[in-house]
Amino acid sequence: MSLLPNRHDDTGNDPAVQSLSIFNQPSKGSKKRTLRKLTEKEKKSAELHVLLNCPKVQPFLDYFVSQYGHDQVFPSFITWYTNWAYFSENAATFDQVFKDISWGPITVHTMYQYNVNGFKFSIEKYSKNNKTNNSGVWVKGDDGNQNENVDYFGVLHEILELEYWGWPIKRIVLFQCKWFDPTSRGTRELKQHNITEVKHTRKYEAYDPFIIVENAKQVHYAPYPLRRDKSDWWVVIKTKPMGRVEVENELDVAYQNEITSVHEVVDAELEMNLDHPDHILE
Question: Which residues does the UniProt record annotate as the domain DUF4216 (predicted)?
Fold first, then answer.
């Protein structure tokens, strides 16, 4: 998922970081924050994800992949990029901002809520204690096999704010998520009803938990309370900003009584009734 950099418009106010527009977005998180020390694995994954989402790093990534292959991106790209920034023959002309980010974050803070793209996200631990669960996450990504439009559904585990070395100050917020299996074994579409399901007992095998918050959309998950054979599957309910539920096209009337009640779905406390005859689904 991380091998497909996402493009961002330049929105920063400081000219020195205009080219790194993913940094210094207006803070929309909860005021209560806790200092967090990342594990080496977490730090490497978060740092790599940030680098791969900087458009001006893309030429370096392209060159690296052409020389060493995709398989070496996670284990080796950060070290290679840092050496290039500081020790290559062009190091003297290398933008200091890009040198700063090559060292990775110097401090990390966590928070439990964050507002972005018109959605109010809360971490899973916090949402469990609330009437409305706002921890469902949906993002588009690639699968590492040239498929660039894959749906990833998951649950928000942590919200992390990373601060980088040097001046001007560079901060970025990441969501750390627990993803469901995006393959057909864990995610499937019921095209006859325009419904997407995830198997919540199947997890994504690769370690790629981080996304930049601006890429996140919100979803809610609804169980099948009357179907024991469907207990491992949840219906994905995509939401629009401000808590409006997005239902693609119309669901068959026969489908609208299967899920008798959907609790904790949206801020508006919407309840959705769906039905589904036994002969349609496995």
Answer: 160-236
Number of domains present in the structure of the chain: 1
Q: Which two tokens stand for residue 208?
A: 């790629």
Asked if the structure places residue 262 within a domain, the reply is no
Which of 200, 152, 199 lies closest to 4 in space, CA to CA?
A: 152
pLDDT of residue 271: 37
Domain membership flag for residue 192 = yes
Asked whether the beta carbons of 144 and 266 are under 8 A apart, the reply is no
Give the residue numbers spanning the domain of 120. Answer: 15-257
- The model's pTM is 0.78
Per-residue b or e along 25-58, where b marks 16 or more CB atoms closer than 10 Å to that residue's CB: beeebbeeeeeeebeeebbbbbbbbbbbbbeebe
263 located within any domain: no
Q: Taking the CA atoms of the chain, what radius of gyration do you get in angstroms?
A: 21
